[in-house]
């Protein structure tokens, strides 16, 4: 008599992670979701070591990411990426926490870029328009040094006329950057 293989054995049920319980339309969607998590691991590896340590990742994950950061091309690199992706998929709360921290970092970068664009516009406007723009600027920022800004504006205008490097424009930008906003 041939006995079925699983008779008499108790099979342990594996707990299925939340990301696998989601309703996916196809296997391709499942693979895309897994790849997105693996890509998140790669994104972590692109950060500096200091930034990685500031994220306060579990020691195992942090070591894995730092190892991935040091690796060169080859099959071991791919295995390490997959290992990090698997680690993140197994710990759903950690995955969500990392996504939130990365979103926060990205938001800070966007805010800083917007601030620098605003400063560049003010610098360009000050150089192009002179005293009228300086008057508008000082209404918004009365604590700025009028005399020093005027000097940089005049020097920057002369540098533009003589096709010299924009040393004064850079100095003006540094000063604007140093002001409290």
UniProtKB/TrEMBL annotation:
Keywords: Cytoplasm, Ribosome biogenesis, RNA-binding, rRNA-binding. SUPFAM superfamilies: PSPTO4464-like. Coiled coil: none annotated. InterPro entries: DarP, DarP_sf. It comes from the Bacteria. Member of a network of 50S ribosomal subunit biogenesis factors which assembles along the 30S-50S interface, preventing incorrect 23S rRNA structures from forming. Promotes peptidyl transferase center (PTC) maturation. Belongs to the DarP family. This is Dual-action ribosomal maturation protein DarP. It comes from Thiomicrorhabdus immobilis.
């Amino acid at each position: 008599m041939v006995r079925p293989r699983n008779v008499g054995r108790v099979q342990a049920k594996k707990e299925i992670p939340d990301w696998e319980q989601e309703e996916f339309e196809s296997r391709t969607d499942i693979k895309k979701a897994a790849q997105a998590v693996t890509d998140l691991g790669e994104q972590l590896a692109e950060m500096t070591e200091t930034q990685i340590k500031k994220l306060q990742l579990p020691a195992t994950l942090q070591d894995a990411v730092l190892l991935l950061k040091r690796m060169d091309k080859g099959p071991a690199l791919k295995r390490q990426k997959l290992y990090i992706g698997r680690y993140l998929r197994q710990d759903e709360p950690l995955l969500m926490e990392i996504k939130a921290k990365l979103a926060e970092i990205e938001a800070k970068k966007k805010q800083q870029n917007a601030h620098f664009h605003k400063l560049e516009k003010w610098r360009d406007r000050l150089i192009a328009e002179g005293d009228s723009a300086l008057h508008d600027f000082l209404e918004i920022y009365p604590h700025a040094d009028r005399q020093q800004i005027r000097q940089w504006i005049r020097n920057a205008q002369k540098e533009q006329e003589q096709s010299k490097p924009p040393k004064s424009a850079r100095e003006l930008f540094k000063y604007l950057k140093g002001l409290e906003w």
